[in-house]
Write a structure and sequence with these properties.
Helices cover 42% and strands 13% of the residues. By secondary structure, it is α/β, with parallel strands linked by helices.
């Protein structure tokens, strides 16, 4: 089956979006490759019977996503199939036309919408003046500190108040942690199958990044120590509690081994615990084992609901001043209105109830996945938000993702998470929370059937 060029009858309304999707699918399937020149706007419009404006809008959308690029006087070209500007999930505007199993979200139902409406209604009648009038973090956010510290106890930490920074979610916290722990030119090491935004962020900050080999327990300690012996390592970035693409929950012995090596070689640790208290049976955070050298961050976005963008960054005492200054110049402060809602929910128990609800919902989704994927090799954690599916031969990531798209399902290829060892772990990430129960089950069954079958020769390039 040929994806590119599409036929006019294959395009759905709005045509510009459908055309952009077809071109992106052709790139992921390997029909279009990095450096290929695309037809001019006018030529493609003529070939497909579309307006030039429609084609231009499709190209503009793909340029925005980083899929293609224009060069003055030369034309429009395909960029790398996977590069630092691309995200491993589909834009939310695609919902409805495809089963979305590529974006990492908690399960949300009408309950969450109703609770947010109630919270906004409360603010309408009981709004603290400081939430809208304070311009400095010390004035606007002081009232939320004690509730935030109580929340962090659910994550296994009891930090000093001075070490806490409130942020607009996990991503600003990660940025501040990296900027505080390392300077341009410093080396940061992490899992070779790591966080999808870490690689571009490190590049923007001028940091060198190296992926280290992993096994079923996470980063291999011998590989970490060998790197430390051969070169100066400034920071170790970890996702030890199920968040990594390979769904590894690092056991306490591995955490202790890495902490001992970090102390021996004087390496700072950055711990990404974005899921927070979703897994009640996980080992203590690394920040609990080594508070003197660990910058830890979590948020309420993944464990409660996407719109509750409040993050918590715990900084070791030696970096407190640097982190506070970098937070000011990059974010200034967390949004007080969101912090007000989160604090209210922590105080009245709503946050605890929503975490318990999310654990049950994700537990059910994981049991469904285990049942549908029975007999296939996969990795997951009991309350985790995704499943890692290694791909059996002769599947490749690009052909599996393309086949899944053709069958109406979006998944994230493992190449989106590779740090420095391409195709060391070929597979796809299947997210469990973005769709309703029935759509999720249908998408999962499609993926399981594909994994048990063989790809069409046309999409293998045979």
């Amino acid at each position: 089956m040929t994806i590119w060029p599409p036929k006019r009858d294959d395009l759905k309304r709005p045509a510009y979006r459908s055309l952009a999707e077809r071109l992106e699918e052709a790139i992921e399937a390997g029909e279009l490759r990095s450096g290929d020149r695309l037809p001019t706007h006018r030529q493609l419009a003529y070939d497909l019977g579309l307006s030039v404006q429609t084609v231009s809008r499709a190209y503009e959308e793909l340029i925005r996503r980083g899929v293609i690029g224009g060069e003055v006087g030369r034309g429009t070209f395909v960029r790398a199939a996977i590069d630092e500007t691309r995200i491993p999930y589909r834009a939310e505007s695609h919902y409805g036309s495809i089963i979305e199993l590529s974006i990492l979200k908690p399960v949300c139902e009408d309950l969450h919408i109703d609770l947010m409406r109630q919270a906004l209604g409360r603010l309408a009648t009981d709004l603290p003046p400081t939430a809208v009038t304070s311009f400095r973090p010390s004035g606007a956010l002081r009232r939320y500190q004690s509730a935030s510290l109580r929340w962090l106890r659910h994550c296994g930490l009891d930090p000093r108040p001075q070490s806490l920074l409130l942020t607009n979610g996990a991503t600003p916290a990660m940025t501040i942690a990296l900027m505080s722990a390392a300077a341009p030119g410093d080396l940061v090491v992490t899992e070779e199958l790591g966080h999808h935004t870490l690689k571009p962020l490190a590049g923007y900050l001028g940091l060198r990044l190296k992926g280290l080999p992993i096994d079923a327990d996470g980063i291999v300690p011998d590989a970490f120590e060998a790197t430390c012996r051969n070169t100066a390592v400034k920071a170790l970035y970890l996702m030890p509690s199920g968040l990594s693409p390979s769904a590894v929950t690092m056991p306490i012995e591995r955490r202790e081994a890495l902490v001992a090596l970090a102390r021996r070689h004087d390496v700072l640790i950055i711990e990404n615990d974005a899921w927070g208290p979703l897994d009640p049976d996980r080992p203590p955070p690394i920040a609990h084992l080594a508070p003197e050298r660990t910058a830890y961050f979590t948020s309420m976005t993944k464990c409660i609901m996407p719109g509750l963008r409040l993050g918590f960054l715990i900084i070791p005492e030696t970096l407190e001043s640097a982190a506070a200054n970098r937070h000011l110049v990059t974010n200034w402060m967390a949004t007080a209105l969101v912090a007000e809602i989160a604090t209210g929910w922590i105080d009245d128990g709503t946050a605890d109830r929503l975490v318990a609800w999310q654990r049950r919902a994700l537990g059910e989704r994981n049991r469904m996945a285990a049942n549908v994927l029975h007999g296939l090799s996969f990795a997951a954690s009991p309350n985790g938000m995704h499943v890692w599916l290694p791909l059996p031969a002769p599947w490749t990531e690009s052909t599996f993702v393309a086949h899944a798209r053709l069958h109406g399902v979006a998944v994230a290829p493992g190449s989106s998470f590779e740090i420095s060892n391409p195709q060391a772990h070929p597979g796809v990430r299947i997210c469990l929370g973005a769709e309703g129960r029935q759509a999720f089950l249908s998408g999962l069954e499609i993926l399981a059937r594909l994994a048990r079958s063989r790809p069409e020769p046309a999409l293998l390039g045979l």
